[in-house]
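haha ok so turns out i had the wrong file open the whole time. this is the CORRECT one, sorry everyone. sequence first:
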Amino acid sequence: ADARVAQVVAIDNSLPALRGRGVSAVEMLAADAFRLPCRDSTFDGAVDKGTIDWVVLSLIIAEDRNERLAALRAEFLRVLHPGGRLVVVNGLGGTDEDPLGFLTEDTGEAAWDSVATRRLEGLAQNYRCHRLVRGSG
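then structure:
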């Protein structure tokens, strides 16, 4: 299979954070992760390395926490095409706040075809990389 990357889009809610990246071959998009300005099934893959951890922890005492996390999961599923991959690098692995919990929560549909997790060698035990493959449902 040909694994060429046609386009890379960096998304952050902070435009200064995006500008500080200094990567010219990447399209920059300032947007809210809960309401991405993208069409359905836009992306083959998405990589998160901290945003989901921040969201999970920032909502820890919110009354609508479960609803907001479900909305974030739904948004990832919406923008990934069937078979698209979500890779989550996080520091909450194996804890009560591990994002894998809300990402794989039963939604009444086949949200993910497969889920794999591995520990990140050389880092604290809770650092994990989760790979989820979007189902066709």
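Strands lie at 9-12, 27-30, 43-48, 80-90, 112-119, 128-134.
again sry for the mixup
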